[in-house]
Amino acid sequence: MNLVKNKKAAEKLISVWWFFVLFIIGLGIVLGVMIYYSAETVVKKVEAESLNQRIFDCLVDKGYLNPRIFEDSFDVFDNCGLNREVFAKGSLFYFKVSVYNEKGLIHENAYGDFSFEKNCQITEKIDAERFPGCFTRTMNILNTNEEKIKLVVLTASNQVGEKVSVV
Amino acid sequence: MNKKDNAFPHFKNNYNLLKCKKAAETIILENLVFWVLNIVFFVVMLIFVYNSGNNIIVQEQSYAKEIALIIDNCKPGMSVLLNMDALIESAKKNNFPVENIVKLDKKNNRVLVSLKQNSVFGFQYFSKDVEIKLNNNWLSIEVGKR
Known about the structure:
By secondary structure, chain A is an alpha+beta fold.
């Protein structure tokens, strides 16, 4: 009789314990889902790559460098369909175009937030959440005189998007 | 053997059977309640996870980024059609006008996605000469010519 009583008591205790375990599992699921969906989708590197592709496509045509790049009147924004104001002071983007021949650097231009260049060197070595996503494309191409040149395009984006206040 | 046990043998057998039947019913009922409660718990969890995925903030963010990336990946002169069924459905649930879901802030060059009042998510794009238009459930994105 005592054994039967103890078994019944034990069964009641186990069921209470089971609901406690369920509560812990439920809490874990809720927390996990909330953490997952509150994390932002970071597309910095994808953006940097898109910008790089856009600039590269407008500077290189069938393996030849656009010779107008060396002219003072050449506007990379107009030619590449970029909005100049996006790369003004306080920009979330950066790009640098460097042209090398066999002797060395012959042309270089950069626009946007210049601090991104150093930040990109840092992010090559370590992962940093608040640093920009960077992309570098180096291509050996020819100029109009059939001379070998190297084109290096470095692009960076540090945009995460934002909630906009409604006026 | 006890004399009392021999006095009412039929009563004792029926009493044992009754006890066994009640014990069996108790076991079945306990198990049924146990499984029903477990199923209810996991169904509630699944509903919670499903609804979290359809969260408005997540949708606003993901679509704003998607549209901005489409704009930036387009070559000048290109146009793209993007299906907006999911966004329109969410906006209608919140009684939000469909024509205000996606807008372009040309002054700051950014895409604004909104699915309810006082909730707007903005994401910048670097292309110029961009136009968008909502036709039925399709968003037409046109990136300007050089």
